[in-house]
């Protein structure tokens, strides 16, 4: 299907529309509504966006607040199963701030990636990762076209890059406005979920607090204990220190100042973080400690959230380690 190249006038209209969406509650629905309007400009069939913590490039990132348009809810979990072989995803992670494009046609893709694309009707992709200062994570967004469509053009990529930067800034403004109108407080101590419990935003302080109390928390949905609060009832007993408010069918949570103090890491998570900061890989750590590589990645995600760091150097500094200092065995 032919996809006409967007014009400067059309891009201008899109940016003006974004500004209007950002001032209209509920703030948690802003990103989804914005993607709907972008379809009129870039003619894509489906899209995926969210926040990610990329603790280790040798494994897939931890995905947070994953949302999609025209894709099933399990899309994020499906992608994580093939992430290690997805070179397009690697390019987005390796070059933040730069729009990446890719097409399946004629490429020697791994069979798992090709099967993934067939399942979801993907033939052409365009994506971008940006640093999200409000959360400390990386914000990513990917658009997809099908086999009957044209690849994304140079003009598409330029318009998408400009649009995505405006989107991220306006989303941060919308979150701040929603917090002022509701529970108040700083974005780092806040979270927003829809009535099903799916998270559309979570700040770093509240994220580390949730991890400390619900170690199995996946970062995509509120823990099941919050089911009553989602229907306008009481928060779970373990959530003492949180305030909540319902706005436009969405639950907003805010962690008080005392609860926002640093949550200490468990001994095992600290040990994994120390080994990683000293230069060991996920596989080496897993072999040494008798863990699976997936568990090591989860522990690293927890450590990055709790210590509010973004890379291995910052992790070592937060742990008070010399990069190559020896670590005594755990007893």
Automatic annotation (TrEMBL):
SMART domains: HTH_LUXR (SM00421). The keyword DNA-binding applies. Keywords: DNA-binding. Residues 258-324 form the HTH luxR-type domain. GO terms for molecular function: DNA binding. GO terms for biological process: regulation of DNA-templated transcription. Transmembrane segments: none annotated. Pfam families: GerE. InterPro entries: Sig_transdc_resp-reg_C-effctor (IPR016032), Tscrpt_reg_LuxR_C (IPR000792), WalR-like (IPR039420), WH-like_DNA-bd_sf (IPR036388). This is Response regulator transcription factor.
């Amino acid at each position: 299907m032919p996809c006409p190249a967007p014009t400067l006038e059309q891009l201008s209209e899109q940016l003006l529309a974004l500004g209007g969406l950002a001032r209209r509650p509920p703030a948690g629905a802003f990103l989804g509504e914005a993607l709907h309007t972008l379809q009129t400009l870039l003619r894509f069939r489906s899209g995926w966006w969210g926040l990610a913590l990329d603790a280790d490039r040798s494994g897939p990132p931890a995905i947070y607040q994953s949302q999609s348009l025209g894709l099933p809810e399990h899309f994020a979990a499906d992608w994580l199963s093939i992430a290690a072989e997805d070179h397009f995803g690697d390019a987005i992670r390796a070059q933040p701030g730069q729009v990446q494009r890719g097409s399946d046609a004629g490429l020697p893709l791994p069979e798992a990636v090709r099967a993934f694309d067939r399942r979801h009707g993907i033939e052409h992709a365009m994506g971008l990762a940006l640093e999200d200062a409000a959360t400390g994570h990386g914000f990513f967004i990917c658009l997809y076209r099908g086999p009957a469509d044209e690849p994304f053009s140079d003009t598409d990529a330029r318009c998408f890059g400009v649009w995505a930067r405006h989107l991220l800034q306006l989303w941060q403004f919308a979150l701040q406005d929603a917090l002022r109108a509701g529970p108040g407080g700083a974005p780092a101590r806040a979270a927003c979920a829809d009535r099903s419990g799916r998270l559309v935003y979570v700040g770093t302080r509240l994220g580390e607090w949730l991890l400390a109390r619900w170690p199995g928390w996946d970062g995509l949905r509120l823990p099941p204990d919050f089911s009553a609060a989602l229907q306008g009832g009481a928060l779970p007993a373990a959530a003492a220190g949180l305030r909540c408010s319902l706005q436009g069918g969405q639950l907003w949570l805010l962690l008080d100042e005392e609860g926002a103090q640093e949550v200490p890491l468990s001994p095992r998570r600290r040990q994994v973080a120390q080994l990683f900061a000293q230069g060991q890989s996920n596989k080496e750590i897993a072999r040494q400690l008798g863990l699976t590589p997936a568990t090591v990645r989860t522990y690293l995600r927890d450590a990055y959230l709790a210590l509010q760091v973004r890379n291995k150097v910052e992790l070592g500094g937060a742990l008070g380690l010399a990069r190559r200092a020896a670590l005594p065995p755990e007893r």
